[in-house]
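Bench notes, bay 3.
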Amino acid sequence: MDLGTANTLVYVRKRGIVFNEPTVVAINQDSGKVVAVGHRAKEMYGKTGRSTSVVRPLKNGTIQDFDVAAAMIRHLLGIVQTGFSMRGPRLVVGVPSGISYAERRAVADAALHSGVSTVLLAGESVAAAIGAGLSLDETAARMIVDIGGGTTEVAVMSKGEVLHFEASPYAGDACDEAIQKYVRDARYLNIGSFEAERLKIQIGSASSMTSERSCIVTGQDILSGLPSRREISDGELSRALREPLSAIVTAIFSVLEQASPEIVDDISRSGICLAGGGSLLTDLPRIISEATGIACYRANDPLHCVVRGVGRIIDDLRTYKRLVFADISQ
């Protein structure tokens, strides 16, 4: 399971990816039962009465609402599991590489409360590298930048070991917030976080040098308070995203500065690999390459790198178990 701030993906052995939806949960306040998860819950956001609350249980890659997270995992397991033994399935969860022991324990406890028998936690940087097809057996150092919903992880690895690491809170959610702020300040329109996310996915760009694209965005006019629409261009989005993307580049520089000349030389030869949904912004590899002087490329299918990596760990646990944080059983 890739338990992400923005999206949760579930991989089942021999079946592949069986769930890929937003990490959003609708909960009945009276019974505590899950009403909806994923797209259905997201559609209910901001539209429910007192009896139902819609929650994003993770922030910056860590659990903010333990009970809702446990209920969500339990609900997902009920959807996807078929043919598991009575003892319960074994679960590998991708978590931010830099989280504390207490935060790792919270994820494990939420999973154990959901009926699994054993929980293994894998750092997302390692999982993304495996899912991107980077060899973890080579001595040559490789850099991967995983831009998720809550955090961006920059890691340098060699022989399966993380040599240098930096986590930044500037990732997908920060980009959405920057878009909301720009549309509010420059276009006098209040928009929700999910509308900002839609705008980012459709025409998000790291550079104003792209071909002119635009998108209609709907929100609440600041002056009148009435529903209103604006046409936003990709050039405007590139200006809105300048600060969070600059912070991501700064994190990459920070890791390069920590590394030895030999490691930097290895990275210069192999390039910087981008993974995660945030890497899909138009022109982002070119912007990073120009800033660092190092070739930069997206992994194949960057959205699914972490969950594919987690899937390879569960498929070949003997090979990859040395790379997981913990093995926790009931």
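Next record in the batch:
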Amino acid sequence: MENEEKTDFFKGGRPGDRRILRGDPDRTAVKLKKTPYYWWYKCLKQSESYKACCNSEGKGILSAVYEDFGDVFKWPWELWAEKYGRRIFVERKPLPKVELLTRQSMDSARPSKLNLILNVPLTVTKRKLLADFRNILNQHHDGRDLDVNRHSTSKRPLLKSRVQMGMVELLLAVYSERKYNKNLPLWKVGENAGVKIAFTHNSIPEGRPRILTIEEEKRRMAIVTSGYLKKARWLIENAEIGIFPLTREPTAIDYLKARLNPPK
């Protein structure tokens, strides 16, 4: 059943900004900016493989993603968000909600891993009912471990990930800095991209701290920047095939969550 509400719901939006009135493209672009949807769009704009796909009008191994995301190099975010983003990221079915079962609907209702059927006596206080309900939820609900994206009905679901969007922004900054300044040393790439490291001290055999030399600081910055570049490449490569956000090689489970077939 298609969502018949007047607003669209985006699970990856910020709290309070997940519902957006239909027919309001400006609001769509503003509310979804800096969310995972925005950074997925920005990752594709950094991808040379996806750029080649766009230049060939969607032909090639990334054609399935192109069919959904279109030419991100042609459309600025404010227009892309409404033209493409809304269509592929909106929840296509209404969110399930607590509802009163009628005698007729009760005959076909069945408990499962995704829903409970409760008997709520109305002869006790609300406080008692709420306490009982809370106890039952604690026993059966995953709480903070719940992967809400796994139950998404959007065409392109997000992955539940510990990767924060602030880190995604930094990874893309490092990737872009290296892309356009290939001759810079890695430590300078990290410095220009805004990588921050606590350069304080190092231990000496006696256990006393000492201040790092400038060369030691540069080496440490280079090591961290190299790690960020590796994560950035995985982030972009995964975005190209329809998995986001993921900064490592995808597993079969990642493909399953993204509703994709793993490569053979």
